[in-house]
């Protein structure tokens, strides 16, 4: 019985650490570029696009801000959509493998 309690404590510690780390991801930043730097994208650790810089030679200056907003919105929506599909696929793949323990949401750990 003592080993089971020790295991449960370790699982709870791991879950708390995962949630803490996930909360910190908002501060993580990465930049990507294409076209020899003509398009640059900044994302955070939560896989959200924060900014897009588009060289003015690629667009009509009057449409630049609208195009930027549309690209950010479409990219974020695509990321949300793929995340939902990934979670669905992982849930189906691991169905019945994880114990059903009240209060423990193993599905969000993936």
UniProtKB/TrEMBL annotation:
What's the superkingdom here?
Answer: Bacteria
Q: Which UniProt keywords apply?
A: Coiled coil, Cytoplasm, DNA-binding
Q: Is this entry keyworded Glycoprotein? A: no
> Which compartment or compartments is the protein found in?
Cytoplasm, Nucleoid
Listed under subunit, the entry gives: Homodimer.
One MF term in the entry's GO annotations:
DNA binding
Cellular component terms, GO, for this chain's entry?
bacterial nucleoid; cytosol
Sections of the chain in a coiled coil: 4-31
Q: Which Pfam families match?
A: YbaB_DNA_bd (PF02575)
Q: What is its main location?
A: cytoplasm
Q: What is this protein called?
A: Nucleoid-associated protein SAMN05192553_105172
Q: Which InterPro entries match?
A: YbaB-like_sf, YbaB/EbfC
> In its keyword annotation, does this UniProt entry include Protein biosynthesis?
no
Family membership, please give it.
Belongs to the YbaB/EbfC family.
């Amino acid at each position: 019985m003592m080993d089971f309690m020790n295991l449960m404590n370790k699982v709870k510690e791991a879950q708390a650490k995962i949630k803490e780390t996930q909360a910190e991801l908002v501060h993580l930043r990465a930049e990507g570029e294409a076209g020899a730097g003509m398009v640059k994208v900044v994302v955070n650790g939560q896989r959200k696009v924060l900014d897009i810089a588009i060289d003015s030679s690629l667009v009509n200056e009057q449409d630049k801000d609208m195009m930027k907003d549309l690209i950010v919105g479409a990219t974020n929506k695509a990321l949300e959509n793929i995340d939902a599909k990934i979670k669905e696929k992982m849930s189906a793949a691991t169905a019945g493998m994880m114990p059903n323990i009240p209060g423990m949401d193993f599905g969000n750990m993936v």
